[in-house]
Specification:
The complex is a heterodimer. Chain A folds into two domains: about 5-100, Elongation Factor Tu (Ef-tu), domain 3 (Beta Barrel); about 115-275, Nucleotide-binding domain of ferredoxin-NADP reductase (FNR) module (Rossmann fold), CATH 3.40.50.80. Helices cover about 15% and strands about 30% of the residues of chain A. Chain A contains five helices and 15 strands. Chain A has helices at about 80-90, 125-135, 160-165, 215-225, 270, and strands at about 15-25, 30-35, 50-55, 55-60, 75-80, 95-100, 115-120, 145-150, 170-180, 190, 205-210, 235, 255, 255-260, 265. In chain A, the strands form three sheets. A seven-stranded mixed β-sheet of chain A has the order 10-9-8-7-11-12-15, with helices on both faces. Chain A has a six-stranded antiparallel β-sheet with strand order 4-3-6-1-2-5. A two-stranded antiparallel ribbon of chain A has the order 13-14. In chain A, strand 3 and strand 4 form a beta hairpin. The longest helix of chain A is centred in the middle third of the chain and has 13 residues, at about 125-135. By secondary structure, chain B is an alpha+beta fold. Chain B has two domains: about 5-200, no CATH class; about 215-340, no CATH class. In chain B, the strands form three sheets. Chain B has an eight-stranded mixed β-sheet, sandwiched between helices. In chain B, strand 4 (about 65-70) and strand 5 form a beta hairpin. In chain B, helix 6 (about 215-220) packs across helix 9. The two termini of chain B are about 40 Å apart. The chains are: A alpha/beta, B alpha+beta. The interface of A and B includes residues 14 and 58 of A. The structure holds flavin-adenine dinucleotide, iron/sulfur cluster (SF4) (2 copies) and FE2/S2 (inorganic) cluster. One iron/sulfur cluster binds near residues 319 and 320 of chain B.
């Protein structure tokens, strides 16, 4: 159930205060938030909130922090238009409206005891991080953990400190690539699918979590299938236009599915045959 | 519940009393057509209309509706706007009532919408079985001639009087307060049954959906890749009129406005339409229903498959014919589409 909700109207947010704000790249800004009513957001990895800048509007944004972190939640916002642009102007101490958490979550319970392969493209790292950090905070509950992260260029990488820490962990395999390198970049170059040649997931024990821009899914799913990972173990998070988050406005429909309620997290078994999904 | 009758004369008095004491919305003539609106004088009321231009959904989900007021500042305030001004909705036809019943389910399921619910609860619905059909009506084929719930009172014209079925306590009270009704006799019951059985025939013979309504959803599911969508949508203007007139369209957009003081403002929702080009657009120039044909198909599939799924299989096209009559290139008539795809 949504904890950040006005009991008189589905559409009225509660107030949250920005505790920390910083630019991660030239287009992505990080926010650490706390609900003013003192409640825990109580989300599950993969869920999203509707964020309001009153007077401008509202946008769905994935929760980037793991629920294992208490007392606050984190968002990463790309400046893409009106609301996200207005959010970028806000600093610590400012307030925003929050509704949620909404939507389905990554299968963090069902995948306990399994290998997890994360495939995150660009901004997709922000939602994936809620599950990645959950897994890292409960490391003993999961077997092999592999993270593939692809960015367009080295300057578009974010959470670089955290990525560095993860790269030093002995029990996590982090592989990165950028589409186009630069002088500073010594790692892999090429699109994210090129990383699949470097891994050997066990199809019987692997759950593959894919989050990225719409164009990425087709190609990554094809690679995952080549590794014989079954449709019910391929998990995706889909983006749609959303005006309500509560199953009413109709904007987020993917044929018969409502992305805000039935998603945004789906298994490929659920959406693979849905014509409007990819 | 109980059944009563009202002579046409007594109905006139009932309407006069209603209009005097209650906010009454009913059907009035608008040039050669009909439209729901506020009734200030009982003489304005038209009871033998064929169809109204717009559906009565505007009284439950207004075209533009304030969701909340806000006040910015050190202590930001958010004040939800729930409107529950009581009104009587007089003369809504069976097919529109069927649509209203469907909307009751849609707005209530999962997350109950308090704005809709407050207006719905504030309404006293006096439904009316049609005495005429428009040249586009096909409710006779869509199981929408009669409806057995959702009304407080239900009127059937049985000649020199109205048969009045009392659906709720609220309806009973309204009737006893403003009218002198008589108990329905066996003859009245028989007369009403006869009128009812003939209702579907009010729709013109060429306005029949030839297939069985039970099979429509399955046939439509199988028609996803049919060439008909591209063929018809070639002429579509993406004007969204078919969305605006439909009693079972309810999608909306949300917008903020801020006053010149930059400290107060409101969030409102407005009707939106899935035929409009930006409906499924997101940032980064991605449009998930970029082609006209995809949007055109989406509306028809909502009526016959997607929304029907939420209604236990009941079709969300009630056969009012409004979209058929409003579509300038005449491509969106459900009768033609269903007859082509569901034979
Ligand atoms: C479940 C989910 C999770 C998300 N998570 C994140 C996240 O973690 N971080 C993040 O940065 N973003 C995230 N997004 C995307 C984010 O919601 C959008 O970028 C945001 O809504 C854009 O809103 P805006 O007001 O800033 O842009 P707008 O000003 O609304 O639009 C920007 C551009 O998008 C197009 N557009 C979008 N909507 C419309 C419309 N209705 N009509 C016409 N054109 C339109 C236009 O081309 C316009 O130029 C997520 C989206 C979803 C659905
Ligand atoms: S009314 Fe006709 S032309 Fe206009 S959007 Fe609907 S189908 Fe297209
Ligand atoms: S789809 Fe057309 S005919 Fe069917 S209910 Fe809507 S407006 Fe009426
Ligand atoms: S966002 Fe409104 S229905 Fe899903």
């Amino acid at each position: 159930m949504a904890t950040a909700m006005n009991d008189k109207s589905l559409y009225a947010p509660v107030i949250a205060t920005i505790e920390e704000a910083k630019m991660l790249t030239t287009t992505e800004k990080y926010f650490k938030l706390k609900l003013n009513n003192g409640n825990e957001l109580g989300h599950k990895p993969g869920q999203f909130v509707e964020v309001s800048v009153l007077g401008i509007g509202e946008a769905p944004i994935s929760i980037s922090s793991s629920p294992t972190q208490k007392g606050y939640f984190e968002l990463v916002v790309r400046n893409a238009g009106n609301v996200t642009g207005a959010l970028h102007k806000l600093e610590a101490g400012s307030t925003v409206g929050i509704r949620g958490p909404f939507g389905t979550n990554f299968p963090y319970e069902e995948t306990k005891g399994r290998d997890i392969l994360f495939v995150a493209g660009g901004l997709g790292l922000a939602p994936a991080r809620s599950f990645i950090n959950y897994v890292l905070d409960n490391r003993g509950d999961y077997k092999d953990v592999t993270i593939l992260f692809g960015a367009k260029s080295p300057t578009e990488r974010f959470f670089t400190d955290e990525l560095k820490k993860i790269s030093e962990m002995k029990d996590v395999n982090l592989l990165e690539t950028v589409d186009n390198g630069d002088a500073s970049w010594t790692g892999n170059t090429g699109v994210i699918t090129t990383l699949f040649s470097k891994i050997n997931p066990n199809p019987n024990t692997t759950s593959c979590v894919v989050v990225g821009p719409p164009i990425m899914y087709k190609f990554v799913i094809a690679e995952a299938k080549k590794k014989d990972i079954t449709d019910d173990n391929i998990i995706v998070s889909l983006e749609r236009n959303m005006k309500c988050g509560v199953g009413k406005c109709g904007h987020c429909q993917i044929n018969n599915l409502y992305c805000c309620q039935d998603g945004p997290v789906f298994t490929l078994a659920e959406v693979g045959q849905i014509p409007e999904a990819f | 519940m109980t059944a009563k009758t009202l002579s046409k004369e007594n109905f006139k008095k009932f309407a006069e009393n209603l209009v005097k004491s209650e906010r009454t919305i009913g059907v009035k003539a608008k040039e050669t057509k009909y439209e729901f609106g506020n009734i200030n004088n009982a003489d304005e009321i038209v009871m033998d209309y064929d169809v109204t231009l717009r559906s009565p959904r505007t009284f439950f989900q207004p075209p533009k509706e304030k969701l909340f007021d806000f006040k910015l500042g050190a202590n930001t305030e958010i004040k939800p706007n729930i409107e529950a001004d009581p009104f009587v909705l007089l003369g809504i036809h069976s097919y529109d009532l069927k649509a209203l019943n469907q909307m009751d389910i849609i707005w209530d399921e999962n997350n109950a919408d308090q704005h809709y619910k407050a207006r719905r609860n504030a309404a006293t619905v006096i439904a009316l079985e049609p005495t005429q059909a428009s040249e586009w009506s096909f409710w006779g084929s869509m199981d929408s001639s009669t409806v057995d719930k959702g009304y407080d009172l239900l009127l059937t014209d049985i000649g020199n009087k109205y048969y009045v079925e009392v659906g709720t306590e609220k309806g009973a009270n309204l009737l006893s307060k403003y009218a002198s009704a008589e108990d329905a006799t066996n003859d009245d019951n028989t007369a009403r049954d006869k009128v009812r059985s003939e209702l579907p025939n009010l729709c013109k013979a060429d306005r029949k959906v030839k297939c069985d309504t039970d099979g429509i959803t399955a046939s439509m599911k199988n028609s996803y890749n049919n060439a008909i969508w591209e063929k018809l949508a070639e002429k579509c203007y993406s004007c969204g009129s078919c969305n605006l007139v439909c009693p079972t369209c309810y999608c909306f957009d949300v917008k903020d406005t801020i006053e010149l003081d930059l400290a107060t403002g409101q969030r409102t929702r407005k009707w939106d339409g899935c035929l409009l080009e930006p409906f499924a657009k997101v940032a980064g120039d991605e449009n998930f229903r970029e082609n006209r044909a995809d949007r055109f198909r989406h509306r028809i599939l909502r009526k016959t498959v997607y929304v029907a799924d939420k209604l236990n299989g009941e079709l969300a096209c009630v056969g009012c014919g409004r979209c058929s009559s409003t579509c300038l290139p005449d491509i969106t008539d459900p009768v033609k589409i269903l007859n082509e795809l569901c034979s």
